[in-house]
Amino acid sequence: MPKTSAATPPLLRRVNAGKLLGVLSNAGVMTGTGLIEATGLTRATVHAVCNDLIEMGWVVELDPVRDDTTVGRPSRRFEFNSQAGHVLGIDVGAAKTTVLVANLRGETKAKTVRSFAGVEAPADRTEVVNEAVAEAMTTADVTDTDVIAAGVGVAAPVDRTGNILADDEFWRRFDSGLTARLSKVHGWPALLENDANLAVLGEHWRGQGREADDLVVLLAGERFGSGLMDSGRLLHGSRGGAGEMVYLKLVEGVGDTHGIARIARERGAEAVADPAVETVLRDLAGTDPVTAELVFTAAAEGDAVAEEILEDIACRTARVVATLGILFNPELVVIGGAVAEAAQSLLPSIEKQLPTHTSTPPRVAASTLGDTIVAVGAVRHALDLTLTARRF
Predict the structure, then answer these.
(1) How far apart are the C-alpha atoms of 335 and 347, rounded to whole Å?
(2) CATH number at residue 155
(3) Which end of the chain is more exposed for a tag (fewer CB within 10 A), N or C?
(4) Cβ within 8 Å of residue 328, ≥6 positions away
(5) Over the chain, what is the mean pLDDT?
(6) pLDDT confidence tier of residue 173, bands split at 50, 70 and 90
(7) Which of 31, 50, 80 marks a domain boundary?
(8) Is 3 domain-assigned?
(9) What is the pTM of this model?
(10) Residue 130 is part of which domain span?
(11) Dihedral (C-alpha) 107, 375, 361, 316: value to the nearest 10 degrees?
């Protein structure tokens, strides 16, 4: 029988510190008695660990509350110090990068967006990300010594050890040594993760999925990608490929991974280019390229061509959501990304069609996190590392 080693006092202290921080970071002021009830730890352990955390700056002790009914010594009162450090959430997309700086409660202190327009080389893209990081930190008045960790999202499968599955030309664009470069320059750890996985973390934490532990987030902009959560647990797969949507090439009525924004833009441009087609898109675009936003605007104004395009997109998206309902049986599928707000208008048609494709249709919602959905999830990812026992 293999030998097992007893937990050492330092390990127990780290575990107990993680428990207390997990409770305090999600609560307001708590007494020692409240922490005992929430963690199951003894009074002596709670007070000893809180003393350690106070000394380290992670927890502050507030003055006791006294009144005429108090008998004996009043309870000690503790509060999580959300200013003890900061984390970064970094979304490295195909067209732009978004950086959030947040305190340890996940409250955003600064946001920066930089475009990758005209930037192709991986090293140059990394430099754009680094410039966005520096700008966001300056705006938040945060230095490298204030940052504990950063979460970084990329549009490629990432395994549990943080390595990109570079089996696809599009995915290889993100295999640039970014996290190693950030850690070397700034001195804090940068944690790489798939963008859709971070999106589902963000949605479960701060979005439409807060009450759903069986959740899928469908990023639906230029390409479809999905993040999967089962019983509150993020699914990766053996090589990080869980939730990848290449299988859509085999699905009748879909045929590829092109997302809502791409289909709307391309179909809209085809209509405008055909002089025989009557559509207000031509006037809305003028001399500029047709965008997905213009197609949604034209449909809202009653343009028949734009309405037909969006109905086709709704049919296509319903098939995509149905496959997720069949394969993973989530309670809720949230459509996220830059198209989420506009996609709200597609939901009635999608929900109407779902029961014709699957006997387990999920609820469908549009994300309210906008273009920060991945960066918010990256903040959550960094906080998960920060608030575990690994720091103690």
Answers:
(1) 9
(2) 3.30.420.40
(3) N
(4) 214, 216, 228, 230
(5) 90
(6) low
(7) 80
(8) no
(9) 0.87
(10) 86-205+373-391
(11) 140
390 confidence band (pLDDT: 50, 70, 90): very low
Summarize pLDDT for 260-315 with one digit per residue, the tens.
999 999 999 999 999 999 999 999 999 999 999 999 999 999 999 999 999 999 99
Report whether pLDDT(151) > 80: yes
Domain count, the chain: 3
CATH number at residue 18: 1.10.10.10
Extract the tokens encoding 221. 């902009």
DSSP-derived 3-state class of residue 233: strand
User: At residue 254, what are phi and psi to the nearest 5 degrees?
Assistant: -120, -75
Note whether residue 2 is domain-resident.
no
- Structure-model confidence comparison of residues 78 and 3, the more confident one: 78
Structural domain contains residue 145? yes
Beta-carbon count within 10 A of 171 CB:
18
**Is residue 83 within 8 Å of 366, Cβ to Cβ?**
no
Instruction: Provide CB contacts within 8 A for 151, sequence distance 6+.
Output: 87, 88, 89, 90, 190, 191, 193, 198, 377, 378, 379, 380, 381, 382
Helix (H, G, I), strand (E, B) or coil at 332: strand
Q: Angle at the Cα of 272 (from 268 to 277), degrees rounded to 5?
A: 105
